[in-house]
Amino acid sequence: MNSSLLHRPLPTLNRRSLLASLSMLTAAGLIEPQLVASVLAGERDLGRLAVQAPSSEGTWSSLHVEGAIPKDLNGTLYRVAPGQKTNHGVQLRHLFDGDALLVKYQLREGNATVSARFVETPERLEEAATGTMLYNEFGTLAPAPGKGGKNQPSINVIRWDGRLLALSEGGHPSAVNEQTLAFEGYWDFHGTLPKDMSFTAHPKFDPETGVGYAFGTHKGRDLALTVFRMELDGRLTQIASLPQPDYFMVHDMLLGSEHLVFVVPPVHYDLPSLFSGRVTPADALRYAASDPTRLIVLRKDGTGEPVILEQPAGMVFHHGNLAEAGDLMTMDSLLSPDASIFQHLAAWSESNPPQAQLPQLTRLTLDLKQKRVTGRSVIGEGQEFPRFDTRMSGKATRHLYTMQGGENFTQQTLVRHDFASATTQHVDAGAGNAFEEAVFVPRHGKSSEDDGWLLHQGYSAVRNETYLDIRDAATLDRAARVWTGQHFPIGFHGNFYYDV
């Protein structure tokens, strides 16, 4: 499909005409009415516009490019996001709510093609056929109870074993055709992922072997944190089962040269409330401020007993790198002093959600011989979505790339940390713009960890349009900006894969 034949690009808007134009876009079915109402009321318009439902599904080529796409950058960037903030007339409350939308950018010899498609799970198709919201979302109950919840594959997307896997933590991954983005079924890794096991949205991959590591929670009596090795034949091998006293919120993990580290905050699900069907998973979360945050250190081969270290209570979603040198480890995490982020996210759709304590980029030093944390320092404030050159996993890295937030959970500043010089470099998205997590892509044949590109989506409220930024990782200078002619919701994670 070509955009010149099947799709009309959205009009270019200046800031003065933006609000007036929203009404026209609503009438054309390009913007959700509830979104426009909040914008016209002066409510945090950028954060809402950045996550609005896509203008269309399809494939577009002949895109407008500012600058030049590097000709040696030949591959595909995949992104996934919650795709809408209403469901058949029901306003969705939580930022995590909404059917998953996949977007892919194919870069070939300086040209770009973009595709977007909802992940058509059986639950999405059933709701579309009935015209009714039937299934609970993470933070929104369906009008009529009885169907249970959705496993929205809207957090991350990886290429594995000849297919895309769209990921969340609610259950099994969704297998997606990497060419057409068509849903192919829920994936159990050739029968090796148990039916009652969730699967992380953040698997990690050993840069030396290509083997992956992942985890899930056993939803039976033991609530065990179960750790898997993702074999190159596509199957899983269980390497550890760590029984837990509660169903804890563990989102990410760290991969070192010899060990894995799981950071378990004192945030768990109230299972009786959750199983009652009267509250959402978001409403069933509980925070125990008097309990510690636990660090579980496990050997990658699954041998030996795990080492458990304690830190003050707090919340964490994401981590940077884990560097190992003998018995000493250095790890970078985005730690929050409390769990107020959950209150903010759960009330995201309200006009004045409660403010959250901002996460801090924190470096911890672990001594496995002494079995204690020997160092803790704050490197940056109010940052999220850390990425680095994953070829350096397990080694000391010089650079880490993060996003700094703006209002209503928008990310508006790209930050480059240089640990060797203890300096940071910032790139602001500009007024009316929001950024998405940046993905580091090394240049072919180059080993330096800043010799590559940063790829990230952005959104312009002035144009009501999504773009792809390609920046030099060493300087943060923009090489190219690819305008899509569409708007896609800004989401959380994604990955780039070179052509084989």
Count of domains: 1
Q: What's the average pLDDT?
A: 90
Spatial gap, N to C terminus: 24 Å
**CATH fold-level name:** Methylamine Dehydrogenase, Chain H
β-sheet strand percentage: 35-45%
Query: Any idea what the shape is?
Result: globular
Rounded to the nearest angstrom, the radius of gyration is 22 Å
Helix proportion: 10-25%
Mind telling me which CATH architecture this is?
Answer: 7 Propeller
**Which structural category fits the helices and strands?**
mainly beta
Number of helices: 7
Total strand segments: 35
**Major pleated sheet:** 6 strands, antiparallel
GO molecular function: all-trans-8'-apo-beta-carotenal 15,15'-oxygenase activity; carotenoid dioxygenase activity; metal ion binding
InterPro entries: Carotenoid_Oase
EC number: 1.13.11.75
Family: Belongs to the carotenoid oxygenase family.
Provide a short characterization of the protein structure.
This protein has 500 residues and is mainly beta. It is 10% helix and 40% strand.
Question: Can you tell me about this structure?
Answer:
- This protein has a single domain (74-443), classed as Methylamine Dehydrogenase, Chain H.
- Helices cover 10% and strands 40% of the residues.
- It contains seven helices and 35 strands.
- Strands 2, 30, 31, 32, 33 and 34 form a six-stranded antiparallel β-sheet that branches. It has a five-stranded antiparallel β-sheet with strand order 1-7-6-3-35, with no helix packed on it. It has a four-stranded antiparallel β-sheet with strand order 8-9-10-11, with no helix packed on it.
- A hairpin with a 6-residue loop joins strand 9 and strand 10.
- The radius of gyration is 22 Å and the shape is globular.
